[in-house]
Amino acid sequence: MITLDTENVQLSVADYVATITIARPEKLNSVTQEMADALVGAAEWCNDSDDVRSVVLTGAGERAFSAGSDIRGLDKYTTPWEFRNRADYCDAIRSLRKPVIAAVNGYAFGGGFETALSCDIRIASETASFAAPEIKLGWIGGGGMSTFLAQTAGASNAAYLLMTGDAIDARTALAWGLVTEVVAPDDLLPRATAIAATIASRPPIAAETAKANLRASVNMPQEQAIAYERDLQTICFATEDAAEGRRAFAEKRAAVFSRR
């Protein structure tokens, strides 16, 4: 097991699954710029490590996944341009090439909601709630909130969240397609880790390619997306893992995939 900690961002790795924990529970896991920098570093480390095949992202404690940016720290930026060009924690999560599962416990508000939406799969505790409350303070989200909500929840539901700033509960989030499952609080991290472990057992190039292909598919016209998918399939088909998969099928045995 590998463990790398900063004061408020914790990273541990076991059995090819990295767990990143936003750890500032006394402040609802709100994110300072120092924490954002640490999340950028954690993402870069996971991308570079052959010991990581999938990632679980969660928040410390029971009250919050993350309440987003620490509002008290926003006035430290001397110009709007400095604010615009800060290292962003949502960008850090989206930079991960490995599949990412969000284990959403408690509040996922503002940037915390965007962080969850930046993950590939979201599992929610029954106590989770989701909101885009920035409008109540005079601004809107800037970490992908609008585009991700429109893609996942549909235009009307996205408009409701963005224009009211009001929260929805986990069951509503499930009905709107924002999360994959809702589980009991005690089952949240085990369930997210089990999904991550399943993905980690798959061929790593194929898993990362599947993620890249999904992201590309929402930005391409349909015919281009299909052609791109076929190109990525061809790349995967040429790997040793694909050859092992074909051999294992022919020999009626479990495949043994490489760790890279």
* Global Rg: 19 Å
Poorly predicted residue ranges: none
Give the ordered list of helices and strands.
Answer: EEEHEEHHEEHEEHHEHEHHHH
Strands, total number:
11
User: For this entry, what is the oligomeric state of its chains?
Assistant: single chain
* Average of the residue pLDDT scores: 93
Helix content: 40-55%
Count of DSSP helices? Answer: 11
CA(first)-CA(last) distance: 18 Å
Q: Strand percentage, roughly?
A: 15-25%
Q: In which order are the strands of the major sheet placed? A: 1-2-3-4-6-8-11
Largest pleated sheet: 7 strands, mixed
How does the helix and strand content classify structurally? alpha/beta
User: Which overall shape is indicated by the principal axes computed on the Cα atoms?
Assistant: globular
Quick structural summary:
The chain is α/β, with parallel strands linked by helices and 260 residues long. It has eleven helices and eleven strands.
Please tag this protein with its features:
44% helix, alpha/beta, seven-stranded mixed beta sheet, 11 strands, 260 residues
What report would you give on this structure?
- It is a single chain.
- The mean pLDDT is 93.
- It is built from 11 helices and 11 strands.
- The longest helix has 16 residues, at 33-48.
- By secondary structure, the chain is α/β, with parallel strands linked by helices.
- A 7-stranded mixed beta sheet has the order 1-2-3-4-6-8-11, with helices on both faces. A 4-stranded mixed beta sheet has the order 5-7-9-10.
What's the layout of helices and strands?
Layout: E1 2-5, E2 9-14, E3 17-22, H1 33-48, E4 54-59, E5 64-66, H2 80-84, H3 89-94, E6 100-104, E7 107-109, H4 111-117, E8 121-125, E9 129-131, H5 145-153, H6 155-164, E10 168-169, H7 170-175, E11 181-183, H8 188-200, H9 204-217, H10 222-237, H11 240-251
Parallel strand pairs: 3-4, 4-6, 5-7, 6-8, 7-9, 8-11
Antiparallel strand pairs: 1-2, 2-3, 9-10
